[in-house]
Write a structure and sequence with these properties.
The chain starts with a strand and ends with a strand. It contains 15 helices and 23 strands. Helix 2 crosses helix 6 (183-196), helix 4 (98-121) packs parallel to helix 5 and helix 9 packs across helix 10. It folds into two domains: 2-252 and 458-477, Aldehyde Dehydrogenase, Chain A, domain 1; 256-448, Aldehyde Dehydrogenase, Chain A, domain 2. Helix content is 39%, strand content 22%. The strands form six sheets. It has a seven-stranded mixed beta sheet with strand order 15-16-17-14-13-19-20, sandwiched between helices. Strands 10-9-8-11-12-22 form a six-stranded mixed beta sheet, sandwiched between helices. Strand 11 (224-228), helix 8 (231-244) and strand 12 (247-251) form a beta-alpha-beta unit. It has 482 residues and is of the alpha/beta class. Belongs to the aldehyde dehydrogenase family. Keywords: Oxidoreductase. It comes from Parafrankia irregularis. The active site is at residue 251. Pfam families: Aldedh.
């Protein structure tokens, strides 16, 4: 049992202002595994005040960027030493298979920290530009201020690192608001920050429910909100930020299409679909969930997907042999089962999976990997983000129709094309309206490449140099000629 009864505010572990608790439930056993203190609006006020003092009066924004880089390198080293503990915690709280937790939920964020530090070490924080009128212009890149980082439960450490680390490198002070389901790992992250000795108030961690989160993003003491979540919640966050003229970046939902051209290998496409999200039971925003295939080869692709996904070993996430665990909560299981029932009702052909529990599983919030074929792109299961292990196969008759189907979505986060002709694949990539794209793979989350979406998938970018720049303001200083 994990028992965390304090919040991390102003560089110290402090008692919350109320006795409200967040109960942590195992998605596998459906039994309690711990409890966490829930922040109230009064606690958010304390966190904002601590962050404001750290930014307005403290040393962190005024340190040489090289010192901030060195601090993040110390954090990355500490993170790596305690990676096994963190992976076990994430496995327990989220139902992520332990092998996936070690690789994607912990090792990848650790690598991202080092990558961000390397980018910041070579970043031009100040540069001189010749002016048109014969005078020099100096450009200073300065921290945007106090940042509210709102992180969901599906990839909590990855998303924490992609928000908090660039903001800290930029010189900002941060308030991290994790999802209730992933509060334990957020507090573990605060432990590590405390151990390396960042100045008080530079990072504050306040687990809380949705109402308190809404209060945070609308707080007048916040200069920038970085939010990852559903498109519906993103619209509410954008409206709250607009009222205060608060800067905001949004990484929202997706319904990404994998376009298989006529020469694509169905087995390779199926493997890429599996790798894009099944390790977290399909609860990944950029999963390839629509597979758009030539009508003449629809059975080849449906059969390959069924064979690949039905072979996934589903079960106890603590077992190193498990490849897919449960969904994060009962509500999520019910949501996904509802979409499966809708797909059958609307006439899609169920190839494998369905609503029954996997073999050998008698409890937990599990859903079997599910494949639908003969899907029309207008169907609910092709248009709405299911956020579970459900893949739909959609036929097309020519390449133009394939691109049209891929673009016929309110989302635009990611996508892929599969073909033996890379140049042809790049031509298709140029026509699909998304923020990220892969050729012969699911989108690779390369630390050097900016990640984000268009349309209802949000705006702003994380990762790469752009990930740091999203936490900077540019000040132009004109210097009169002698």
């Amino acid at each position: 049992m994990w028992d965390r009864q304090h919040l991390f505010i102003g560089g110290a572990w402090v008692a919350p202002s109320t006795d409200r608790q967040i109960e942590m439930i195992s998605p596998h056993s459906e039994e309690p595994i711990g409890q966490v203190a829930a922040a109230s609006v009064a606690d958010v006020d304390r966190a904002v005040a601590a962050a404001r003092q750290a930014f307005d009066e403290g040393p962190w924004p005024r340190t040489d960027p090289a010192e901030r880089v060195e601090a993040i390198r110390r954090l990355a080293a500490r993170y790596g030493k305690r990676g096994d503990e963190l992976a076990a915690l994430i496995c327990a709280e989220l139902g992520a298979p332990i092998s996936f937790a070690r690789r994607a939920q912990v090792a990848l964020p650790g690598m991202m920290m080092t990558a961000f530090a390397d980018i910041a070490a070579g970043y031009p924080w100040q540069e001189k530009r010749p002016g048109v009128y014969g005078q020099d212009v100096i450009l200073r890149r300065e921290p945007v201020g106090v940042v509210a980082a709102v992180v969901p439960w599906n990839m909590p450490q990855f998303l924490t690192v992609t928000k908090v680390i660039p903001a800290l490198l930029a010189g900002c002070a941060v308030i991290l608001k994790p999802a209730p389901e992933s509060s334990l790992d957020a507090l573990f992250f605060a432990d590590l920050v405390e151990e390396i000795g960042l100045p008080a108030g530079v990072l504050n961690v306040v687990p809380a429910d949705r109402d308190v989160s809404a209060y945070l993003v609308g707080h007048p003491g916040i200069d920038k909100v970085s939010f990852t979540g559903s498109s519906g919640a993103g619209r509410q966050v954008a409206a709250a930020c607009a009222a205060q003229l608060t800067k905001v970046s949004l990484e929202l939902g997706g319904k990404s299409a994998a376009i298989a051209l006529a020469d694509a290998d169905p087995a390779a496409v199926a493997l890429a679909v599996r790798l894009s999200g099944m390790g977290m039971a399909g609860q990944i925003c950029n999963s390839l969930t629509r597979v758009v295939v030539p009508a003449s080869r629809i059975d080849d692709h449906a059969d390959a997907l069924a064979a690949t996904l039905s072979a996934i070993r589903v079960g106890d996430p603590a077992d190193p042999a498990t490849q897919m665990g449960p969904l994060v909560a009962r509500r999520q299981q019910e949501r996904v089962r509802g979409y499966i029932d809708t797909g059958i009702r609307e006439g899609a052909r169920l190839v494998t999976g369905g609503t029954a529990l996997p073999d050998g599983v008698d409890r937990g919030w599990y859903v079997r990997p599910t494949v639908f074929s003969d899907v029309d792109n207008a169907m609910t299961i092709a248009q709405e983000e299911i956020f579970g292990p459900v893949v739909v196969v959609i036929p097309y008759h020519d390449e133009n129709e394939a691109v049209r189907i891929a673009n016929d979505s309110e989302y635009g986060l990611a996508g892929s094309v599969f073909t033996a002709d890379v140049e042809r694949g790049l031509a298709v990539a140029a026509q699909v309206r998304t923020g990220t794209f892969g050729v012969n793979q699911g989108y690779a989350m390369d630390p050097a490449a900016p990640f984000g979406g268009v349309k209802a998938s949000g705006y702003g970018r994380e990762l790469g140099r752009e990930g740091i720049e999203s936490y900077l303001d540019v000040k132009s200083i004109s210097v009169a000629a002698p």
